[in-house]
Structures are given as structure tokens and as C-alpha cells.
Amino acid sequence: MTTATLGSLTWERAVDRPDLLADSTAAAIRAWAADDPQVAGAVLVAEIDPELADTAAMTEAYGVPLSASVNCVLVGGRRAGAEKVAAALVRATTRADVNNAVKRLLDVRKASFLPMDRATAESGMEYGGITPLGLPAGYRVLADAAVAADDAGSGGTVVIGSGLRRSKLSLPGALLVRAPGVEVVDGLALA
């Protein structure tokens, strides 16, 4: 069994711990690993206190660099009666440019965050654990180019949700932006 450390957390291969993943996340990682053998050893999971799932609390409690955390927010908008939904992935030290970049990419009149109850119901994931891995097929996944950057504080590793509040995933940012369906976007995030 592969283990690693980041902050004070001990990480194990996610493919070996589906009990720490939302069902759709586990399925997405298995499918991705079947297509790319690097994934099984590179996508890791660590159990955390679910009360510490929010980025700031997790960073403080476990010593994970804030710059390593990547937030996944679900955004939607409409044009001509058609709704478009996307996940926006940005470093936790930034915020998604919903009003300009996301709106333009979705080609909608107004983009806004999905309400929490809708986001969790449609994704099958828990609030505070939503991840780009395992989202519904119709969702676009937009990743700010900085997600792939080799951050000095984390050696290129990023921390994202697992679909559950009680765990987090870690993997190289450069690998995350190569996940199936991910679109890399320059300027998706604002400082």
C-alpha cells in the first residue's frame, strides 16, 4: 500500500480506499486509472474530521499549505432557456471569476453559484467535499491554469475534495488538469 504525507495527514492510494470517496468519485477514479496507469499511484486520499472540511479549517488543523488547496465551485447560467453548468477549479488563494470568465465560457447572460441543496443533490457529493472527479456528465469542468503550476509550498501537489466531508484527495496539479473532461483556462481565477 502506497502512503505519503502532506501536512500532518497520511495519504493512501484512493483506489484502495473507496470507503473514503463518494460513489461517483470512486467510479471516476477507477475509470481514469484504467485509462492511465499513473493515476492509481498518484491520486491519494486522507481521512479528516468532517467538521474541518472547509479549506481554512483543514489548512489550519492539518498544516496543509493553503496554496496547495484547490476549490471546486459549481456555477450555472441560462441563455435562450437552456441551462449550462460548470465546475470551476481555482487555487484556494484565489477566487473564480464567475461574473466574467465563467459567464463568457458558458455563454450565458448571468452566471451564479448553484444553491447548496441543488449542488449536493445533482453531484451526489457532500457540501464541503465537492470534487471535479465524478461530476454529472453534462457539467463542464474548467480549471484555472494555475492549478497545474508547481507551487513551491506543495511540490506541485494539490488537495481537492473527495465527494465526502470526511476525506480529501491529493494529486499532482498537472495530473488533475489532464483528468477526463477538464478544460484548462487562463485567467479563470482572480487574486
TrEMBL record:
Residues 50-177 form the YbaK/aminoacyl-tRNA synthetase-associated domain. It comes from the Bacteria. InterPro entries: YbaK/aa-tRNA-synt-asso_dom_sf, YbaK/aa-tRNA-synth-assoc-dom. One of its GO terms (molecular function) is aminoacyl-tRNA deacylase activity. This is YbaK/aminoacyl-tRNA synthetase-associated domain-containing protein. The lineage of its organism: Bacteria, Bacillati, Actinomycetota, Actinomycetes, Micrococcales.
